[in-house]
Amino acid sequence: MAELKTKKTELSVDAFLKKVDDPQKQKDAFAILKMMEKATKAKAKMWGTAIIGLGDKVLKYDSGRELNWFVMGFSPRKQNFALYISGALEDTALLKKLGKHKTGKGCLYINKLEEVDSKVLEAIIKQGVSR
Length: 131
Description:
Blueprint: H1 13-18, H2 23-40, E1 44-47, E2 51-54, E3 57-60, E4 66-69, E5 72-76, E6 81-84, H3 92-98, E7 102-104, E8 107-110, H4 118-130
Antiparallel strand pairs: 1-2, 2-5, 3-4, 5-6, 6-8, 7-8
Helix pairs in contact: 2-4, 3-4
């Protein structure tokens, strides 16, 4: 069985976010972190070298395979933010109100917080915790 490559580490979330080059992207990253910490009531941890995860859960696959993972997380990538909010992206009514975004399997991609409605984003994040 293949082992999961992305694992929780002891690297500093704060130090990682302070290395984000673009000042606006860094500010947005800290704002997203705050939203997710409030919703999950969990302390953020680094997963690998570039993903911030909050909370813990076990993913169970139909095959019986189980993996330790985070409840939700994000990565401030150069081109956009990848927000890992599985379960909450099925609410198309909320997504229609969000603003400029793209979705993938379990991922929400946004470029900047100013391009989305932050209240709607908070609602999506809260919904992701409850699923």
